[in-house]
Structure formats: C-alpha cells, structure tokens
Amino acid sequence: MSAAKVTEVVQAIQTLFSSSNASSKSEANLWLQQIQKTPEAWSLAAELLGEQNNSVEVHTFSAQMLRNKVVADLRDLDTSRCFELRDSLINLLYKFRSGPNLVKTQLCLALVALALQLKEWEDPVNELIQMLGGSPETAGCLLEFLTVLPEEINGNQKIPMPRQEYIERSGQLLTGNSEHVLQLLITSIQNSGSDSDIQVKLFTCLRSWLQSGDISVTYFNESPLPDLVFKALESEELFDIAVDVICEIIDESRETEECIPLIGRLRENFKPLKEMMKQTDLEDRDRLKAFCRIFTEAGEAYLELIVENLERFRDVVDGILECVNLPDLDTVPMTFYFWCSLASRLQQINDSDTRHDFQEIFFSLVDIIIKQLHYPYNLDDWTSEDREDFMNFREEISDVLLDCCHLLGAENSLARPYTLLSNYIANPDNAQWQDIEAPLVALKFMAAQVEETESVIVPKIMKLIPHLPSHPKVRTASTLVISYFSAWTAEHPEYIPSQLDYISAGFEHPEVASAAAIALNYLCKDCSRHLVDYLSQLHPFYLAAAKSLTQKEMLEITEALAHVISAVPLSNILPTVQTFCFPISEALNELLSKGTYTPEHITEISDLVERIGVFLEYIAPEELYFGERSPVASLIQDLWPLFERLLVSFSSEPIVSESLCVCLKPCFVYYRQDFIPLLPSCIERIASAFRNGGLSCYLRISKIIIEEYAENVPESRPTLFNLLENLSESMFKIAQNKRFTDVPDVAEEYFMLVTAFLSKLPHMLLQTPMLSSIIRCGIAAFGSDYHRVLTSVLEFFTKLLDLMKACSKEPAVVGLSQKIICDLGADFVRYLLIGMVQTFSLDLVGDVGNIFVLLGELYPEENQNWMVGTIDQFPPEALSAGERESFLTEYHGAIQNQHKRRLGILFTEFVTQYRRKNFDLLKGRND
C-alpha cells in the first residue's frame, strides 16, 4: 500500500481517537470501517503494526482490524497464506509481548479465530504452549491466548462456520486440551512463588476455562487446586479473582455424584471462611459482598445436600444467615433466592424431623429480617434516592418473610413481631419510633399468609394497635396493618367500629392520610356488606375530605365507598349513589359556568370527572336479571348532558379528555343496553372531539364501543361504521401534517381500533374504498421506531391478510381489498423490509415473517417480484450480489413451502448480518 494511503489511515485513526469534533470523528469512523472491508486491509494492518514509531492508538486499531479481518474474511486467503498469517501473528505477539495489553489481547483473539477456522493447523494449542510456554518473557502471551481461547470460541457468534464444523473444531481445541491446560495451570500456580501478577493471570485463565465448561471439576477431587484457591483469599491482590474461581468451582460441582469428594473438601473451608468474614470491617462492603457471593453460591448449589444433612453444611447456612445480618442493603438481597428455594424445598418434605431441624434457623431469619426493616435512627443524611432504595429493599425482603411465615406457620411467625410490640409498649422509654414501625411492617407483609379464621395472635394485634404511639410513621404502618388484615376483619366484624375510628382519625394527619385512604378502601371492599349501615356517617366525611385530601387519596376513598354502595339492596342503590355523585356534578356545573378556565380549574374538572368514573366503575350490580334496567342507568342519563358539554368544551385538554374517557368506559361495558338511546349522540361527540383535539384517548374509547356493541347490538353497526369513517378521516389529516414519531400514541391506538373493527365487522371494512387510505397510513407507519406503534400496525396487517385468505373464495367480499393490496404491494414490501432491517426490534421479525407468508399465499407471483424489486434497491456496498442471491433463494423456498419458522430464521439472520455489516451506515442515518 502506498505511503500516502498509510499516512491517510494514520491521520483518520488519530482523528477518531483525539478529535473533539463529533462530525469529524464520525466521518473518520465511517471511512475506516470501509477501509477494513477492502482486501488491502490485510497488508495495511501488518504494515501499521510493524512500524515501531506508531502511537498506541494506531497499534490498537490495527490489531483490531487484523482480528476483524480474520473473523470475517479469512475465506479470502488460501491455506498457504493462512499459515503465513499465523506466523505473522505469532511474530507480532512476540513483538508486543510487553504491551500494550490491548494490542496483545487483539492479536491473541485473532490467533483464536484463525485456529478455529484453519483446520489444517492440527494442534494449535499445544504448538503455542511449546512455543511460548518455555520462557518467562512470553509466558504472559501464552496465558492471554489460553484465557481468551474459550471466551472467544464460545462467545463470538460472528465467525462464519457451519454449525457442525464449528462444534467439532471447538471440541478439538477446548475439550481435547482441557486436561493438559488444567495441569499446566496448577503446576504454574504451585511454582509461582510470591509473584502475585502471574498468579492473577493464572487464576484468570482458570476462571475462563471453568466458565466455558470445558474443564471437568472432577479433576479437582484429588487436586491441590481447591486448597490453593481458598488460600489465595488471604492475599489482597488475589482476593477478587480467587472469589471468582471458587464460585465457578462450586457452580460446576453442584450436586453431582462424581463431585462428592470435591464438595467434601470445599465444605471444610467454610468454617474458616465464616470467621474471615466476621473479622472483616463492616465498611469494606465489596469484600463482604464477595464473601456473601461464595456462601450463597454454595447454598444454592448444594441445596439438596443441605436439606439431607444440615449439620454437615451448617457452616454454609450460618454463613448465609450472617450475610442477611450485614448492614449493606445491596448485599443482603443476594441471599434471597437461597432462602426462598430452601423454604420451598422444605415445604415439599413430609418429614417433620427434617423441617424441625431448620426451625431455629428460620426463627433467627425472621428476627434478622425485622431488624433489617428498621429505618436508620439517624435520617439526616438520607437522600430521596436512599429512601426509594430502602422501600424497594423492604418489598424484596417481604417475599422471604412470607416464605418463613408459610414454613413456620402464621401463629409462630406473627408472635415474633407481636412480642416485640408488646415489650415496647410495656417499656416505652426504651423504644424509638423505628423500633415500633419495623415489627408493624413485618405484620403487614405476613398478612398474606394468615387465614381469616386465625384467632390467637391477630385479635391481640388489633387490640394493641390503638395503644401505639402517635408518631406519623408508626401511625402509617399500623393503619396499613389494618388494611392488609381486612379479609380477616370481614370474618370478625366486631372489630370494624374501632378500626373505622382509627382509620378516620388518620385523615387528620397529612402524613398518614394516604395510608388511611388505602386502609379505608381495603376495609370497604372486603367488609362492604357490614358497612352499608355506616354510609350515612361516611357521606359527610366524604364531602369534607374533598377539601383537604389529594386526588389520589380521594380516588381511594371514592373506590372504598363505591364498594359499600354496591352492597346496598338493589332498590336503594340509585338514591344512594345520587347522594354521593350529585354534589360532584353540581361542582362541575359550577366550574363550567365560569366560561374561562385557569390551569387549576382544568385540573379540578379532571379530578371531579375521574371521581364520577370511579363510582360508575365499581357500582355495577351483579344481581340483575337478563334485560333488567340497571338502577345506575338513570344516573348516567342524568349525567349525560354534563358529559356532552365536557366533550364539546375540552376536546383538546388531555387531562380532562383522559378522565372523561375513563368515566365513559363503564357506561359501555357495564351499562351497554341502557346506554343504547344515548349511543348515536355519544359517537357523534367522540368523533368531533377527536377531529378537534386529535387525542388518542378518543380512539381508545371508540375501540371499546366497537368491541361492546358490534356483536351485541346489531342495529348499531351502521353507526359504528360512521364512527370509524369519521375517525379515519381525521387520522388521515393528522398523518398528512405530522410524522408518526410525533404522535406515536395516536398511531398505536388508531391501528388497534381498526384491527378491532376488522375482528368484529370484517365484511364492512373489506368492502370499503377507505381501506386503501388505511393501508397507505399503515405503510407510512413502518418508518416509526416506536415498538408499540409497529406492533399495532403489524397486527392490523396480519389480521387483514388473514381475513382476505379466509374469504378468498368470496370475490364480492374481498375483491376490492385484493385489488388495493395488489396496487400497493410493491411499496408495502419495500417499506416493510426497509423498516425491518433498519429499525424493527428482532422480536417483531416473526410477525413480519407471518405477513410475508400470507402475501405469498394470496399473491404468489407478485410477491416474488415485489421482493426481488425491493432487494435490487439495496446498494452493492450494503448487500453484495452473493448475499442477494442467497437471500432470495432461501426466501422463495420458504414462501413456496409456507414454512413460517424457516422464514423467521431467514429474516432474523438477514437482519442481524445486515445490521452488523452496515452498523455505521445505519447509525449515521438514525443520527
């Protein structure tokens, strides 16, 4: 290669690594990517690596380029040139034996790729051991090669080899050499003296081979290696890699009969390991996490052996228990899977003696968990992120607590936090709020395992709650305990008055109000039949609460009251719900009378509408006879003028429109028949609202209308079709003025709506000229990079083509749709394939494959031509002639045989290879 070209490449590399100009770096990167694909790249890389004065960046890039060429383009070289390349790589490796390490690693990776593909190189591993292993100078090179060998063979999917050939060759290189490599590593470790640098490399290499599964740990039964690696934990320099190796050995030896001697040897090390962990400074979190990793790996690997003989593995279990007690909340969750697995396994065992052996451990675990549920005594330094992390930790550890409760029994489990609370109440001077709040949280979590018939501990808890301190955190936790035991209260209604008083008092404290709203909701839902007589007391409370509580809290209370109203005798439901809803509608009418609205007014209107929606959602009597009019229908009729006014006035206000659509949903779902007289007016208003505001919620509610009425109310079908026409007309205008990436929610909801119409009333849509515009709209959506939009569009086209196939013998039904697809087929295939290779996620490839199979069945000849025309438009640098021919051959075969799975694999491979090859081109286009 000319000196000028070499200089140009060096300058491009320097720009890539050093320039502060993003555009220049991008251009340099694209240019270098293209250079690497040329045949001259072989000699260029060698020349750049051979020049001693080049920078580290140039040497690193050149080594990477050489490795990439070996991976992707080795087939361009004949056998003799491959051996020349091998010798050149070994010489370069010797040259860079002292570094830089990045260059050395890339050269070793290139050697691995060469060894894998060059079958004529009969024994590369032993040759390199002989060549590089005899001198301390090159020992580092050998270890680097042996380290990356299993990693690259098992991890690099880019190497182009037939699968069977790949399996055979990798077996020769790895499995065939594993025993020799292991013996070499053990001997080297024993002879390494105090050279921690070489020891780290030796253990790193061992880890790599263990992770690959190519070294059988049965070799360790009589080997000194387990003792050597546990001994390495005492070295600061070796600690991290020793932990990795120990965990790999444990994982590979999990519960196999052949490894029992090895497991016995490993077991002897856990007692000193436990002592080592106890002596570690609690501030050294990384070290403690490493110990925890070893113990939990052992616990999970040897679970069955632990269950069979706890005493033999007591050090492992106690070590894991110690880990739960650590202060670092990032470390503790590492143990959760073990405890859940152990509890689950013990629950499957009928042997009471075995379960009894573990009882003490699980009681200790419960006590430790309650301790870990404590808020810190000093919260001054806590950030909002710390609080969020702590709450997430509580939720995680609750699953372990539930498993303990299930294993020990509710009474035994509940007694632990109850005893703590009783002691704190008896000695209040010795307790801070954190000490009381944690056991209450434990009780809340345990509630899921408590039967409604429990009569020993829960009554004591309920009697104890009113005597707890009034600290907001304690009050919040105790209120939530009541909510979580609401199913129990339903069977013990004598506790309702005191609980209702306690919950109601909580609304007086702003910090407790949210918990009180949740508790009232749970209590009313589970105890609705017992609370009907309390509605007269709850009504003034509800009206007053609206003045002080947040919307979230009001929705909780509204849902709570709706549950109670639903339990009112049928004849009294209407006046009861009117009592609660009419004050809300009056407040809405008062706001609407203002004529002009501030943002605060709009939020208040949305909130009030949302509350009415909650009442309509949850007051749906289940005891109506067929055809009987719901008493709530009269309320809906009374409210309709208000809803109509809102649809007209607030069609462009997202929060009001969302609330209104949520409010209207139960009208169509639960009161379908009763709403029929209002349906034409409602549909007209919804279509107008979408035309004016373009909000996706109107498409969503229209979909619900179609799903509810299309089949159940046949006389409504012309009205429903008019709704689709009007919405589509508005949608087409949106598509002309905006990109789908700007309105993804609208695009998604629109195609979900059209798919619903196709499912319910296929013949009406298949025979309308409007279908052409809908399909054009769908083709345009292929350019979207929003997954949900693409999913919605692909589902529509799959449904459409499926129906056309099912009705193919009914020309009167599908004649028009067949012509539309035929006219638009070339564009359809082109944009679908381009979208698939550029932006679609791979999980959508199967859906695309189904569409092409359906196209092939409906249009066998045209489909082939459409695909050829599309593939021919790909530029040669993006898709070579050979790649085109190969793809089209495979595609035609899969289509002719209607082989969906084969087509899915073909598309996945095509997209993956295309994106890998043209990554920078695609990235530049997306940028």
UniProtKB/TrEMBL annotation:
One of its GO terms (molecular function) is small GTPase binding. Pfam families: IBN_N (PF03810), TPR_TNPO3_IPO13_2nd (PF24138), TPR_TNPO3_IPO13_3rd (PF24140), TPR_TNPO3_IPO13_4th (PF24139), Xpo1 (PF08389). GO terms for biological process: protein import into nucleus. Residues 28-95 form the Importin N-terminal domain. SUPFAM superfamilies: ARM repeat. GO terms for cellular component: cytoplasm. Signal peptide: none annotated. This is ARM repeat-containing protein.
